[in-house]
């Protein structure tokens, strides 16, 4: 169906049963998530798609429109109407490839990140931009409170503040307010947890938790591959450590945990405990490219090896701790303080749950790297791969029940359904 699909290659249109996919052939497809039907084929770019984002109208007076923004290596950005499949507008004034797009619904503007950061309104008027930042360009953007955004530029994290205008046209400005240089290598993943916290991950396996208000480092983890830090995992004997095996390729989160795709493994980092509470160091045979949290404590991950797997976060049943022997000194009261410490440690151990990730599903269908996927709840799962395929997966039990219900309804309408007592 497609040429090689990029990591930015699929987006869900919120509140709708459709999604968009894009690839290195520069073509965008719109799909029906329920039936798998191809709705539109959008032509307008001449090079590969580098970023894609939903861009729905927000004005209460306007009729609800489902739009998408697409950026390409041809140095253009196009707005598409998902209802008609037509091109709405095209911007061609960029000096470099736009690598990321972010829509700030609250401010009713959108941002493009390349060698500079640009701020646009919904009419595609350029409101303001930064000076040239770097030839490497901005690789990721995330919205922060107080009209700020965080931009990943190589190993640096740059905080920008948007100065808004009352009349919506003039007086906009974007200011650099801080540079965070805590990472030792390029930042590959960036995710907002809530209004107070965001998280970054780097090429050498560093995960840093940041305060979203004052941009200070709250916690960090950089020992994902160290078996001594995760004793529940069987250690592996290796002569050397490949950089790809420690790279944080993707991050997602809920209010309690950050879920990290690190090398071939997946890790669950608890924000309150500030530590990894569960992991699968070899979740796939090759690098994990995308990971998402599902309801009911489940995760889905996909890999370069073409596999898609479903995991469930479960709590281990702990055996009761053995009683602490009294010993000679405790007979005379000399060990009372030590006994109290042992009881406190025992109570802490009992109150600290231990978790593990169990494989509960393996989706076999792709023959090459699965770049990413979208989960649609009851409608199923859509995966895109370098094998030129997009596969729509369904819950077999649910689909069987629906088919049976449809069959019984047809039989009842035709009068062929007879109930005997």
Q: What would you say this structure looks like, in words?
A:
By secondary structure, this protein is mainly β. It is built from three helices and 31 strands. A four-stranded antiparallel β-sheet has the order 1-2-3-4, with no helix packed on it. Strand 10 and strand 11 form a beta hairpin. Keywords: Autophagy, Cytoplasm, Repeat, WD repeat. It is found in: Cytoplasm. Its main location: cytoplasm.
Give the helix/strand class. Answer: mainly beta
Helix content: under 10%
Largest sheet: 4 strands, antiparallel
Biggest sheet: strand arrangement: 1-2-3-4
Overall outline? globular
Low-confidence segments, given as residue ranges, are: 1-8, 231-241, 326-337
| Cα radius of gyration in angstroms | 25 Å
Q: Give the total of beta strands.
A: 31
User: Whole-Å distance between the termini?
Assistant: 53 Å
Strands, helices and their partners?
Elements: E1 5-12, E2 18-23, E3 28-32, E4 38-42, E5 49-54, E6 67-72, E7 77-81, E8 86-91, E9 100-104, E10 109-113, E11 117-120, E12 126-129, E13 140-144, E14 148-153, E15 156-163, E16 173-180, E17 187-192, E18 197-202, E19 207-211, E20 217-221, E21 248-253, E22 257-262, E23 265-270, E24 275-280, E25 288-294, E26 298-303, E27 308-315, H1 327-330, H2 336-351, E28 355-363, E29 370-375, E30 381-385, E31 390-393, H3 396-414
Antiparallel strand pairs: 1-2, 2-3, 3-4, 5-6, 6-7, 7-8, 9-10, 10-11, 11-12, 13-14, 14-15, 15-16, 17-18, 18-19, 19-20, 21-22, 22-23, 23-24, 25-26, 26-27, 27-28, 29-30, 30-31
Keywords: Autophagy, Cytoplasm, Repeat, WD repeat
Organism: Accipiter nisus (Eurasian sparrowhawk)
Protein name: WD repeat-containing protein 41
